[in-house]
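pipeline/complex-builder :: batch 7 item 3
reading input block
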Amino acid sequence: MNLRWHHFALWALFIVGMFALPQFVSNGTLRTMIFANFLAIFAISWDTLSGRTGYISFGHPFLIGIGAYTTAILTHRFDFPVEISIPIAVIATMVGGLIVLLPALRIKGSYFALVTLAMMELVYQLVQVVRPDLTGGTRGMSGLPTLTRGAANGYYMSVSLMLAIALSMWLIMKTRLGTALSAIGMNEEAVSGSGLSVTKLKMTAFLMSAFIAGLGGAVYIHYLGSIAPRALFDINFVFTIIVAALIGGAGTTIGPIAGAFFLTFLLEYLRPWLPGAERYMVYSGLALLIYMYQPKGMWALMTQATFKSKIRP
Amino acid sequence: MSAKLEIRNLVKKFGGLTATNDVSFTIEPGQSVGLIGPNGAGKTTIFSQIMGEHPQTKGEILIDGKEISHLATPQRIHAGVSRTYQVPRPFSEMSVAENIRVGLMPDSIWDMITRGPNREREVEIASAIGLGEDQLERLPSELSMGDLRKLEMARTLATSPRLMLLDEVFAGLTVNEIAVISDLVQSMRDDGMTFLIVSHDLKALEPLVDHAIAINHGEVIAQGQYQDVMGSDIVRASYLGTA
């Protein structure tokens, strides 16, 4: 691992800063930050698969949805305690996602993106019509057990989860596994030509991504206390996750977090002026500008400005 | 250190096009053989079939007497065969050291996570191939074509091959760079490495090989001692386009 003491010092500073925030900001801002934390989790999940290996997923809510619906059904219909339903939901996401998407990892580029998009749409339709007595059909489910009460507690829970995931992924990506996954994104044939099993590596990336998506999805709905298929499987939700990772800096750990916070606050502050879908035009324009100027995202821009040096992945 | 390669009746068809037709040859351990022929003769296709990138339509490929046709590319590399490409394919956003690191990766995901990179081995391979320690942190975009070829060979060497397939290893190099790569191949030959080398630069190829296999239109037209093959009328005619 190429780790330096200042990396840990920066992480410590970041963690202390994030935990100290509730002392300085309003409850309204905290609620916005809770959503930013969850978006960061989903963006890290997306980045683990797509940002690193170049396999662009357009159906990440498919994975988030498996985790969310599994725990929702278990707690709401079968009275499972949350401590048991969430781990089951995570395992279900990894296994279910793998069964469905493993064949898709054999195809590349836009075909993979289309298959993932189709999976999301398929699950969206299925949860509405198959066993609505379990899934709640088009209306979803409400009255689910919640993990916290109050904005501050919700913030501490979400930020703890987000930071634990971010730090773990950062450490994993600093190992040779991270190097191998990034190598797939650069030249898959050369990875295979270096004696590595690309299928095994892609499967690992997918399982890690599914683990984070399942965990994030399950905890998210136990924060909200409800689940609604239309919001979960919304195409805008897909794009928000992808743009958060890209705008922040795909292939990094901090990038998706920065992108998620930037996007969440941008959309929130635009709400009074542009309450409808027009807000998405503004953020699309901004994302396009940043992407054109620095394809490696905001994190690279910030690093460039700070160190005035070339950016390395 | 050395591997034996046997190719038996290799046929590769791309739709209606027969790229290689009933190709057979043997390379003994420690031998260095030139694979020559005009453009489009099927040389690179033979490499791709040996590596499993384009599985053959018919025929057998054996390393040390063991059939490898059913193996995927990474397993063939573990069996001891590795190749370079006509156009170097470095990992563009990784340093020279990281490029070599990919070739040195363990097979197990757990080992990738728990065991750090073998920096000493990376430096050792880089230096054996003629890349200085000061170049280890450079990006491929900062390297000359000669150094890119060296990097390609370094990553190949990192997989601990016993048989190396070098594809157009002198293409785009200056006279000095050709000399450096030639010295490198010679020293690896001295260590017992088996080579199959494709090159259009016959002058550079000649001192590196003791045998040659000439192919044209996907078929072997001559094989044997290098001088005998090059002196053959049918080989000359194929290069002049009259065969």
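note: Chain B touches chain A through 34 residues (CB under 8 Å).
queue -> next item
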